[in-house]
Amino acid sequence: MKLRFLPKILLVLLSAASQAQNEFTGYFEPAFELSHQVNTRYSYSFAIENQNIIYIEDRLDYTVKQIDLSHLSEYRWHPELTVGLGVQYRIEKIFDRHEENELRFQQQLIYTPKTSRFTTKHRVRMEQRLYASENKHRLRYQLGYTFPLHANNAREPYLKIDTESLLEIAKTQKPEFEQRVGVGLGWLMGPKTTLQLGVEYQLEDFTQDLSHEVFLLAEVGITL
Length: 224
Hints:
This protein is mostly beta strands. 6% of the residues lie in helices and 68% in strands. The mean pLDDT is 89.
């Protein structure tokens, strides 16, 4: 896998989103994560993520939409299987009085089969999204691949490609389906610090009220 293929992948994602016209929204989403590997089986992490609107209704904009605070604990009970429990709090009401803050609980199972040249990850996640006015339940499945780009490079750059399918149900709405496709680059900036940059294209509620969203992602991760 060569680095020159990345611009082509990005072009496909952005071209697909551009066909949406007024139903297209662009976001910038920076994140910061602290993680700690307690032992060979147990690890945990804390993260803060900020979502901002940068393009909406055919015009450039910059509006803070929400801030997410999250925690995730993971336990590897088999060399290829990891279970995890997480909690997340989304702060949105202070940026838009018409929105509600959200408390979210997460349960997940990750299967990482052993391969020789790259990493494959299957993740199944269940979520309970609790609002003041209603509760929602979501089922997610993600398939991801991580390819090392230059094995002899001290910064160990890598390419990530993933796709995720989501189903959300609630008493107040019909079932909503969503599909996501993402691609990104990562670097080891130091012995315990990584930087990831990427783009993600999302098809929101594509069976009823289709909308297109593109997220520009930036994440710094530090291992304690």
